[in-house]
From TrEMBL, chain A:
Belongs to the ELP4 family. InterPro entries: Elongator_complex_protein_4, P-loop_NTPase. The keyword Cytoplasm applies. Residues 1-39, 357-379 are annotated as: Disordered. It comes from the Eukaryota. GO terms for biological process: tRNA wobble uridine modification. It is found in: Cytoplasm; Nucleus. Pathway: tRNA modification; 5-methoxycarbonylmethyl-2-thiouridine-tRNA biosynthesis. This is Elongator complex protein 4. CDD domains: Elp4 (cd19494). One of its GO terms (cellular component) is elongator holoenzyme complex. Gene3D superfamilies: P-loop containing nucleotide triphosphate hydrolases (3.40.50.300).
From TrEMBL, chain B:
GO terms for molecular function: tRNA binding. Residues 312-370 are annotated as: Disordered. The lineage of its organism: Eukaryota, Viridiplantae, Streptophyta, Embryophyta, Tracheophyta. This is Elongator complex protein 5. GO terms for biological process: tRNA wobble uridine modification. It comes from Rhynchospora pubera.
Length: 379, 370
């Protein structure tokens, strides 16, 4: 019947993965439903589904990864291209897991960006076994620690041991020096669009709609997750740059599309080229908001340890929450981006360099929580 | 140094696979910087051409007539420069009424009248660049006298697209332009900064005084300095993603420009940029080993003997050999020898166990058995 058919096709809300887990009611026994989860997605706290961002440290900071059905925005720094590192890891992770990826960039040949995607580091067997043994010990400790001390052990106690076997597969370490294999890139799941010559965003909007509808066309539970990556959405050389309100309504419609599907959208934008009020509106539309900042060449060397290896700062402004009224409060919101052994991206907390006895300068600046020039760091 | 870095980077051009470096020279109306920025522009032009390394320049002249630029350069360099004349007839008024005489303009000046149509503009620049290729110059730099004039005729995104296309083109090795910051909204200026790799701006050496409080007569005479000097600030975006901020002093003498360096003020920058940091109280492995190797004062006697606990009954002469024990118990030693009593004073020092983390005890008095 027509009505029955119509009801079947109504998209599940807010994300089909979470409905699957909430029906079984107990997170400990989610092992029965975890086999039906597509690769690359896992259930985290509050029954929410996460996909990995491609950077294990970032997944840990955000409490599991990027929430399925959310829009992640990254504010670029006009001086440094580090947002591309985040985008590359995000897209590689999706391709490695076999998820569909849609990429839009402000260049004439966005396909060439795919050539810079990193390939995953091959895990050695010994490491994997060691990881399992330590998991068992942690679990025993977890039984004895009282509830209020659980936060010191992170989210290991929240994830049950069955899923820990899959933890290694959820997020991989990427070697930024090795490009991803060609045959993975040429699959049908990866699409690229150029936004440079477009005079309005309708073409991009249609692409996103068809992409997301393709995801949900497969049968209910086993549908794959999808990733939408848009680079420099408000880049000034794009034809639609002066149409502020058009760009905002595009983001709003993208947000609505993604929320009722199994996709995650990551949008990077240079906030400095937008006027203040419009930039604030963009930031409010994000579910998770990160920003990248470039660092000056030698000035901060006396104040921070490990300065030579740092590429830039990553600041977490907002973290998406689902099924919960409790906001995420991070103990540190600024992290430094580093390349470990020049190949994989790690995020570390900032440590102050040892204070020399002679100069009292660094001591003074560390004590006060100084705010930077007009940016959104707040403490 | 800043000026040298800029000229070198413009001369070297781009590495293969990279976009061409682009310098955005910002001009403002604060008197008399407006003329200084143009002087810097001219200086860059002449220094790029005069080194004789095969750099050729395509100059897009909006602000002054082409003959002005040609008069700046000695005739030997006239072959290395091609001018796109957008000054004489930008709105095509003359050519509509009187068709331009064909043999009038000298060889290296091309008149352009149709400024609205940017693809045509781009192709004329590229055409001139290719002309150079025939002469054997493989590195062509494009200089635009001012982008502000371009923005009069075409919308912002298309001007930026043109500049980006120039940067991507293989014939163009570097690019620089002048922009008047007072005539545009801040977001226009930041869009130009976004697509450029170097940003240079001028600031007055002496700030305008606060007329309410300051001693006016003294400060006005010092304002004279502004006419001959200025601060040249450069922000370089480096390949490794870091930003280099440089500051130099500019001296203007009779139309020519000299740069001298000034000690850089970096502490101000640092204070603005430092986010919340924590102290790293974890020890690295090397630090842990070093700590285990340290012998504390109570444990040694300072001359390589075995570790002994200080004994209050030692004689004065022995204690004089050991600088550490003098430091610790010297005074009490003297008192004791005077008293001639054999008091047994011993110090038993037991190091804390390394396994104990600092501040791990909730209550340090827990181990008292009372």
């Amino acid at each position: 019947m027509a009505t029955g058919g119509g009801q079947q096709e109504r998209p599940t809300r807010p994300s089909s993965f979470s409905r699957v887990s909430s029906s079984s009611f107990s997170p400990a026994s989610s092992s029965s439903t975890s086999t039906s989860l597509p690769p690359g997605v896992r259930i985290g706290a509050n029954g929410a589904a996460f996909v990995s961002s491609g950077i294990p440290d970032l997944d840990r900071i955000l409490g599991g990864g990027f929430l399925v059905g959310s829009v992640v925005m990254v504010m670029e720094d006009a001086d440094a291209p580090h947002h591309l590192l985040l985008l590359r890891n995000f897209m590689s992770q999706g391709i490695v897991h076999g998820q569909s990826v849609l990429f839009a960039g402000p260049t004439k040949e966005p396909r060439s960006f795919l050539g810079t995607l990193p390939s995953p580091v091959v895990q050695k067997e010994g490491l994997k076994i060691k990881h399992d043994v330590s998991d068992v010990q942690d679990k025993e400790k977890g039984l004895r620690i009282a509830w209020q001390y659980k936060k010191y052990f992170g989210e290991q106690t929240a994830v049950d041991s069955h899923n820990r076997d899959k933890k290694q597969e959820f997020s991989s370490d990427f070697d930024l020096r090795k490009p991803l294999e060609r045959q993975l890139l040429n699959s049908q799941n990866v699409e690229c669009i150029s936004t440079q010559d477009a005079f309005d965003l309708s073409k991009l909007q249609n692409h996103c709609l068809t992409f997301v509808s393709k995801l949900s066309m497969k049968d209910g539970i086993n549908s794959n997750a999808g990733r939408i990556a848009i680079q420099s959405l408000c880049a000034p050389q794009c034809g639609y740059f002066e149409k502020d309100w058009d760009m905002l309504s595009f983001i709003r419609s993208l947000r609505a599309t993604v929320q009722s599907s199994n996709a995650v959208a990551v949008i990077t934008f240079p906030a400095s080229v937008l006027s203040n009020s419009i930039s604030k509106r963009w930031q409010h539309l994000a579910d998770t908001l990160l920003s990248i900042r470039a660092i000056p060449d030698k000035d901060l060397a006396k104040l921070l340890t490990g300065y030579q290896d740092m590429l830039g700062f990553l600041h977490v402004h907002k973290v998406a929450q689902f099924n919960s009224q409790v906001p995420v409060i991070l103990d540190a919101s600024t992290y430094s981006l580093k390349l470990q052994k020049r190949k994989s991206l790690v995020l570390e907390r900032l440590n102050q360099a040892p204070v020399e006895g002679s100069s009292g300068v660094s001591y003074a600046t560390s004590g006060s929580c100084s705010s930077s020039k007009g940016s959104l760091l707040d403490f | 140094m800043a000026e040298g870095l800029i000229v070198r980077s413009l001369r070297d051009g781009s590495l293969p696979g990279e976009h061409a470096p682009a310098l955005c020279l910002e001009d403002s109306l604060t008197p008399p910087l407006a003329s200084h920025s143009h002087a810097v522009f001219r200086h860059l032009l002449t220094s790029l051409l005069s080194t004789g390394t095969g750099t050729a320049v395509v100059l897009v002249a909006f602000h002054r007539s082409p003959s002005f630029y040609l008069s700046l350069l000695s005739p030997t360099f006239h072959n290395s420069i091609r001018l796109l004349d957008c000054y004489s007839d930008p709105l095509a008024w003359k050519s509509n009424h009187h068709p331009p005489p064909s043999s009038h303009s000298p060889q290296n000046i091309t008149l352009l009248t149709n400024l609205n149509h940017l693809p045509h503009f781009l192709s004329s620049i590229l055409h001139l660049a290719k002309d150079f290729g025939a002469q054997g110059h493989d590195r062509v730099t494009v200089a635009i006298d001012s982008v502000t004039h371009m923005l009069r005729h075409a919308p912002l995104p298309s001007v930026l697209q043109l500049l980006t296309n120039l940067r991507c083109h293989e014939k163009i090795s570097s690019l620089f332009w002048l922009i008047h910051t007072d005539l545009h909204e801040p977001k226009v200026i930041s869009s130009f900064e976004y697509i450029s790799t170097m940003i240079a701006s001028l600031q007055p050496i002496v700030q305008l005084p606060d007329y309410a409080n300051a001693n006016i007569s003294a400060s006005i005479t010092s304002l004279e300095e502004n006419y001959s000097k200025a601060k040249f600030n450069v922000r370089l975006k480096r390949r490794n993603g870091r930003v280099k901020l440089l500051c130099e002093e500019l001296l203007i003498e009779q139309g020519s420009v000299k740069f001298s360096s000034v000690p850089s003020v970096s502490s101000v920058v640092a204070q603005n940029l430092i986010p919340k940091v924590q102290f790293n109280i974890q020890l690295s492995d090397k630090e842990r080993m070093d700590r285990a190797n340290v012998v504390l004062p109570f444990e040694h006697q300072g001359n390589g003997q075995n570790i002994e606990i200080y004994d209050g009954r030692r004689s004065l002469s022995e204690s004089q050999k050991d600088p550490s024990s003098i430091k610790i118990g010297g005074l009490s030693e003297q008192k004791r020898s005077n008293n001639n009593k054999s008091e047994k004073g011993e110090i038993h020092y037991i190091r804390d166990s390394d396994d104990e983390q600092p501040d791990s005890d909730e209550d340090p008095d827990d181990d008292l058995d009372i």
